[in-house]
Each structure stands twice: as structure tokens, then as C-alpha cells.
Amino acid sequence: MAQQKKRTEIAELGEFGLIDRLTAGFAPHDATTLCGAGDDAAVLAPPAGERMLLTTDSLFEGVDFDLTYFPLRHLGYKAVTAAVSDLLAMNATPSQIAVSLGVSSKLPVEALDDLYEGIRFACSEHKIDLVGGDTRASMTGLVIGMTAVGHAPEERIVRRSGARQHDLICLTGNLGAAYMGLQLLEREKRVLADVADPEPHFAGYEYLLEKYLKPRPRTDIVAALAEEKIVPTAMIDLSDGLSSDLMQLCRASHCGARIYLECIPIARQTSALAEEMHADPVVAALHGGDDYELLFTVPLSMQEQVARLGLVDIIGHITPEPTGCFLVTPDGSDIRLKAQGFPESEKSN
Amino acid sequence: MAQQKKRTEIAELGEFGLIDRLTAGFAPHDATTLCGAGDDAAVLAPPAGERMLLTTDSLFEGVDFDLTYFPLRHLGYKAVTAAVSDLLAMNATPSQIAVSLGVSSKLPVEALDDLYEGIRFACSEHKIDLVGGDTRASMTGLVIGMTAVGHAPEERIVRRSGARQHDLICLTGNLGAAYMGLQLLEREKRVLADVADPEPHFAGYEYLLEKYLKPRPRTDIVAALAEEKIVPTAMIDLSDGLSSDLMQLCRASHCGARIYLECIPIARQTSALAEEMHADPVVAALHGGDDYELLFTVPLSMQEQVARLGLVDIIGHITPEPTGCFLVTPDGSDIRLKAQGFPESEKSN
User: Which of A86, A306, A264 is nearest to A175 (CA)?
Assistant: First the structure.
């Protein structure tokens, strides 16, 4: 017989007791943290001469995650990844996060312990300090608000707007795996909805689940770029899908792009599950989102340096603005890229 | 006949169109803002030698506000006040905010325009820059996540933990007005629930409504403290109510406190409405919350300087930790303070 898990109501601890419990064991890693959680505001000491970078992100239950299959520990880790990834996309070093939770009373304190265990693990792995841990009642589902702070010297900061004609378009990792991981979880949820002791079938697709449930931020890429003395001309992280995010970069840089279908890296498990589910892995790669890989551009002259990174694929190049953004298929057809999920405002060529 | 108000669905604009529309017209005020909304992260230049201060706060529909009577323009303004107030409580100068919205599709774009008009007005009034304007779908109500950044020289930063025995406890403004404003709005909502063309009766209580719907952050106090060269030993902003917030300050400073009932400032309208509603204005002042006034402590020797501020009442003094936190009534009785809203863990004397 399964052991009954302990269940403590949030009201038993009170607001201060809860915050103390959740934020315990967060030892400061970063020298820029002078005063963390526990006062009206955190006090940070920016490194002399460097810029501070700031980003905020929110995850909503029912929109961004489904607690029926999303372990809270992984959700905490993923929330940190999502926030930190925006700093990496500026080529900055993440140093602090602040968490603002909205919690319905149906969640016990032990569930929040799990969530914070994931946050704590991510902070420890990436040497980030938790400097705020606000928890409020929410009438509805769980809401995770995440603010991330980082720093970088001005000359290393990469904006979205610097891509120039002929620049190479570079991509880390592979695409569509997180999206197929989500499809797998949704399928098993449907199949097992009325089963008493559900045993989902995930064998062979563990990589896809990990990419969806516990994506790692590409801190290694920012380190490798520094090592190779590469400062990209523009960079963005892939959270909405390659198509939408590339179009955002092009919009900010006032340029167009051509990317080549056969250059887009897709993992073996992604293709295998797509085939099993009669889905198109290219659609997953273009529009899936949640990949948290980095997309950046470098001048054509840097091709060799990029190759030395060993972690990056070159998938296309930047074109003049009036030509627009296109995917080139192996047979040479040009397909105009679209930002999925929003109404079309232009016709496909 | 009333003119039909224009209603634009959020989906008509798309995510980028919506963000562009909402964040338009936010000209940077502060020299520390190098790059605001529109990239993966904002880029800030901290003033040389100063500390950066960071705070996050969230407001949830149904918990923190009721849209049946809360005008969205005021809600935007109040959300900025709530975030900025935490920076003022550290004696810092607010410089940037980032807004993270969760929005249900039932709200039209025009409603978000109103919300942002209030945010824009607050930013302009307090010379703060909006450096992030993330908007996401929420399955449920409106969620407003607010991150505020400020700066201060180390020697002027005031934590909660510095109060010492015999220090004077000082308070800005008056208490309980916001709470009574809320009671008035709730009463009119109940009374007029089934009326076709409701005409609520607010005459004579306009001040209470303004304190609840559009509280102003006490930036004037931080300026006045600097002018008088006063650095408080400890400070906190009053968002949860005098009792709870004073207890937090004492807990952080390892001290007790005695405050005097006849010294607690209560506005005439607050007392009048409390009498009309058969409520106790002292309960409103102690536990009402939402006042956004500042509570601070100074050494006894600074009594004259504090008097010169002209904006502050001295309501009590700091005692040794073992004596606890008490309210002294005019007849000399001591009543132990409690943090309202959470279970008692100690008996009242």
C-alpha cells in the first residue's frame, strides 16, 4: 500500500512561516548580492563598469503548464530556465532571480516545497541567488512570476537589432523536441483519463520529456562565445518557435532571412514520435516553441570561429528587408515563414 | 443614449501588435535606462558607486481587486504605487518598472489601454521608465505582476533590521482610509447588485475612495528625509496594516514596541464612515492595510529633526525584544498586537 504523503495546509504556517520555509537554504552564490529575500527589496551591487540586465516572465497554470503531468520540481526548474534564457539571449551572465507566486489554497505546503526544490536546484546549478520570494493567494490556478537579473560589459551585450545582410544564422541544439514531449504527455493523459492505476508509456522518448519538462538554459553557449571571442551581431532565445522568433529578430534588425530546411537539426526521437503520431517534425521545429535554444547571427567572416564552437549549426543567412523571411526546401522552393498562433496579415508566396 | 464604446479583441492585434500599442509613448525619463521594452531583457546603467534595489509584487483579480468597481486606469496607477512603495521603504530612488500581465480574452484591448494609461501616468509623475511590457493569456482573471528597480548610495539604504531600543516610531499620513474606502465600495456593490442603473452614494467620502483606488507612493518622504539629512534606523511600508507591518519590523530588528492609540492619525472621513457603518476605526487603522504609508524609526536624539519634516507623527517607541509589541490605550491598558489574517500563536495579555 502506498504511504500517505504528508499534507500541510498553507494557513497552518501563515504567510511569514511559509516564506521562511520556502526560502531557507538559499545561500548566496554571487558577490553582487548584498541583501536577498526578507526585506522590502533586494540590494544588489552591480560590477563596476558593467550593465545590469533585467527580464520578467510569467507561467500560468492551464496555459503554460498542466499540473496533471507536470511535476512541480521540474516546473520550478523550468521557470528559472525560461527567465534566465532571456538574459543569455543578451549574452549576459545571470546572477539573481526573484519569484512571485500566486497559489490557490488547494495546493499543500509540500507541493510548494517541491516547486522550490526545483528552483533551488536550478539556482545552485547556475550559481544564481534567489533574492525575493513573494507568495500570495490566487483565486484560481498556480501563477509563477519570475524576474531575472544579470550583468555584462556593454561591449558584450547583444541586442536583437544588430543583424546585417549576409550574416550567418546560427542555432544551438535541436528543435521540436520539447513540443513532441508535450504531445506525448497530452496523448498519455487522454488515453489514461479513465484508468484507475495509469501506467503511461514513455519508453524510448525520455529525451523528449526532459526537453519539455526540464529544459536547460544554454549558459554553456554564452561561456563558449566568450572563450572564442565571438560577439554575435544579434541574438534571441527560442521560446515561441524558430519561425516566430527568427521573424522577431529580423523585424528588430530590419532585415530578411533565408533558412534551409535540411540544415535545421531535429533529434531522432523527435522524428520517431512525429512519425508514430502522424505529425510533421518540421512543423514541430518551426512552431513548437519551448526549446530555449539560442538563435544568433555573426558576420560571414566568422564561419570558422563558429565551427570551432562545436555546439552550433549554421542554418541560413540574413537578406535585405524587402525580401522577407523564407524557408528553402531541398527542392529549392521558398516558403514564407509565419508567426504561428496569430492571424496572418500577408499571403504565402 | 450612451455611445457604444469601441471593443477590439486582443486576437485582432496579435501579441506583437498589442505590446507595441501598450508600450507606445513611454519616453525614458531616467539616465540609467539604456534599453527599455522590446528586447529579451532591459539594459540598465547603475549610477557609479550606488546599489541597485529590486522588488517584485503581484495583484490578482478577485483577491487584490474587484473589477466591478475598480477602474482599470486607477488599478494601473495603484500597481505602480505598490511596487514603488517597497523601494521607498528602503529609502531608494525608483527608476524602472517592468509589467507582466496575465489577461483573459474577455477583456478588450481598450481595457488594457486604460490600465496602461494609469501605469503611464504613474511613470510620468514619478519619473520612472517602463522597461518591460510582457502580456500573456490567462485562463482566469487579470494578474498584474510588477517588478520595480531603484538605486541608492549604500549609506542611505534603510533595512528593516536596524531599529534599536528607545528609537522613536514615526508614521507618515493617516491610517485606515483605504480600508474604509474598500468597505464603502463593497457596500454600494451589495446594495446596487440588482439595480438597473445603479447610482452609488459616495458623497463626503471622496478622500477614502482615492486612498483605496489611487494611493500615492510617499516619494515626498524620501526626498524630505534626504533634505533633513535623516537616515532612519529601520523602515517598512504599510501594505498589510500597521499591526502586522510593525511586527515585521520588530521581528527583523529583534526588538519590541509600544505604540500609543491616541497618537495614531485617523482621518475625519475614516472615523465618520466607520461610525456610519458601526465599525471601529482603530481596527481599520491597525489591520486595514493598503495604506502605502511609511513607518520608520529614528534615534531619540532626532526628535526635533523629525518634527521639522512636518509630514510625520511619532506614534511610539522601540522596546527590548522580550517585552513584545503593544498598543497602549488612553486609560493605560496594554493590548498585545496581532498580525491579522493568520492564526494566532500567542495569547493576548
Answer: A264
**Which strands, in side-by-side order, build the sheet including B93-103?**
A33-35, A42-44, B50-60, B143-153, B93-103, B129-137
Number of CB atoms found within 10 A of residue B221's CB: 23
Residues 6 or more apart whose CB falls under 8 angstroms from that of A36 comprise: A23, A26, A28, A42, A129, A130, A131, A132
Model confidence pLDDT, tens digit, residues B107-130: 899 999 999 999 999 999 999 999
Whether A54 sits inside 8 A of B98 (CB atoms) is: yes
Parallel, antiparallel or unpaired: strands A143-153 and A93-103:
antiparallel
Give A-chain residues touching B41 at CB under 8 angstroms: 53-55, 86-87, 89-90, 92, 148, 150
| pLDDT, tens digit, 9 for 90 and up, residues A290-299 | 999 999 999 9
- Nearest C-alpha of chain B: how many angstroms from A79? 14
Nearest-CA distance B124 → chain A (Å) = 21
CB of B56 less than 8 A from some CB of A: yes
Tell me the ipTM for this assembly: 0.88
Using the Cβ of A56 and the Cβ atoms of chain B, whether some distance falls under 8 Å is answered with yes
Give yes or no for a contact between A53 and A149, defined as CB atoms under 8 angstroms apart.
yes
Identify which has the larger pLDDT, B288 or B200.
B288
The set of cell numbers assigned to A187 is 496523448
Interhelix angle A206-213/A177-191, nearest 10 degrees: 100
Return d(Cα B277, Cα A105) in angstroms, integer.
Answer: 31
